[in-house]
Amino acid sequence: MTDPQQVQDRKIKLDKLRAMNVAPYGHRFPNVQPLATVRASSESLNLEPGQHAENTTVRVAGRVMLHRPCGKLVFMTIRDGTDDLQIGLSKAAVSPEAFTIANKLLNLGDIIGVEGTLGRTRTGELTVWATSLTVLCKAVQPPPEKWHGLKDVDLRYRRRYVDLFTNPQVREVFKQRSMIIDAIRRCLVERSFFEVDTPVLQPIYGGAAARPFTTHHNALDLNLFLRISPELYLKRLLVGGIERVFEFARVFRNEGIDTQHNPEFTLLEIYQAYGDYHDMMDITEAMVAAAIERIGGGFKRQFGELELDFTPPWRRATYAELLKEYAGVDMNDEPAVARKAEELGVLAKMKAAATEFVVPDHAILVNEVFDAMVQPRLIQPTFVRDYPAPLCPLTRRKPDDPNIALRFEAFVAGCEIANAYTELNDPRVQEENLRRTLAGERRDETMAVLDEDFVLALEYGMPPAGGLGVGIDRLVMMLTNSASIRDVILFPLQRPKAAIDEDVDSV
């Protein structure tokens, strides 16, 4: 727990700063140079140990991570968003006030600005030798002394702001996340896709099989839902003539939390008129390749104990082929599937979870067997295509086999990262499928009521299209070797925790 005496000591120093007419919460400090830039520029100076570049002045700012008073010298290490750098203050080179502040009134976690010259200490450490010091922010709470020894992982997510400034590796993950999203966006824009925003608050939710969050708009006295998917609005835009469209959508699903699921996450959805799910496979490979090229590290990447190879082209196999390969059953052999499901304990689990058990459809049993036997073995990037049609009400059927839906899912390390369809654009068939889903005894909560406006939009004519959804958070996990989705979401949802247990330096 945080030592109250440490907090009190810091408050005393804060009052002393004010007594010296020093603003402890600072002001504008212009022309700051990133520490990484300063370090890079120093290479051209060819400084020897003990040498100073007297004519080179720099202005830097950052958080104090190390503080070592040494008689008439004070050494500090500061950290900004790019790097760490040593600061040196000599009593002879700065004002008495500045030296007193540096020597007596600064603590770890304080934010300072420094102007000075570059040099190297006798041990060769690159150092900014200060000629002036500005206090920019006094930290009242001390940073954790042994943050990397923190055993309560939950606390790292809860106090992400401390996690970020004490652990550069965590900050680097989120920088890479930003770069991945930017690379994907550029990849799509270069292919003439148009980025849009669609409603987050929706009167009718749909586009996925998920339970929504509900809310209420007082002025209209209207119940609304946080979107579970932007799909049906993006398809309306295809009707409207925006033939290549995408959205990085924050979506919300009122479901469980684990290493692969967070109730709020980022879903990239893409639709291309006159395309199909084969085009979506190509786009998926292109986007991932662009992201890897942007962050570096090559197409062969470590993920936990696995080495993943994202080199295109990825394996492409049918659902039926993989079920036969890994589960040893024919997708259309109902007795064999039922026996395998019984062997795996699928029915027992479904009975235990249901208040009123109903024997599941064959397609549902097939998918349970697939999830248990096939998905965990899909380690290298794999496109699984041609799903059982009953699982896919929004998908076009295979022309020569209406029992097959033209859908794929992309799996990496046993985790689904993308889902795509050759889109269904026949309004009559679409309405029948949606009504069948609504009327089914085992309704999957894809929608509460029929979205009649969506069907109406299809009646105006939606071009044949391919559609793709990519779980951005899961993709970032794979590309940054992060074990949990919470490691790549800045502020994941956490269970409430009593304030007495929330101190940031608990070990």
Descriptive report:
The chain has 507 residues and is of the alpha+beta class. It has two domains: 4-137, OB fold (Dihydrolipoamide Acetyltransferase, E2P) (Beta Barrel), CATH 2.40.50; 170-314 and 380-487, BirA Bifunctional Protein, domain 2 (2-Layer Sandwich), CATH 3.30.930.10. Helices cover 33% and strands 27% of the residues. The strands form four sheets. Strands 6, 10, 11, 14, 15, 16, 17, 18 and 19 form a nine-stranded mixed beta sheet that branches. It has a five-stranded mixed beta barrel with strand order 1-2-3-5-4. Strand 17 (401-412) and strand 18 (415-422) form a beta hairpin. Helix 6 (168-190) crosses helix 8 (277-295), helix 6 (168-190) packs across helix 15 (472-480) and helix 10 (334-344) crosses helix 12. The longest helix is centred in the middle third of the chain and has 23 residues, at 168-190. It is elongated and about 85 Å long. It starts with a helix and ends in a 27-residue tail after the last helix.
Mean pLDDT: 92
Percent helix among the residues?
25-40%
Q: What is the CATH class of the largest domain?
A: Alpha Beta
Distance between the termini: 8 Å
Query: Roughly what fraction of the amino acids lie in strands?
Result: 25-35%
Shape: elongated
Main beta sheet: 9 strands, mixed
Instruction: Give the second-level CATH assignment, the architecture of the largest domain.
Output: 2-Layer Sandwich
Low-confidence stretches: none
Report Rg.
Answer: 29 Å
- The CATH superfamily of the largest domain appears as Bira Bifunctional Protein, Domain 2
The CATH topology of the largest domain comes to: BirA Bifunctional Protein, domain 2
Would you count the extended β strands for me?
19
**How many distinct domains?**
2
Structural class: alpha+beta
Q: In DSSP terms, counting alpha (H) and pi (I) runs of 4 or more, how many helices?
A: 15
| Oligomeric state as shown | single chain
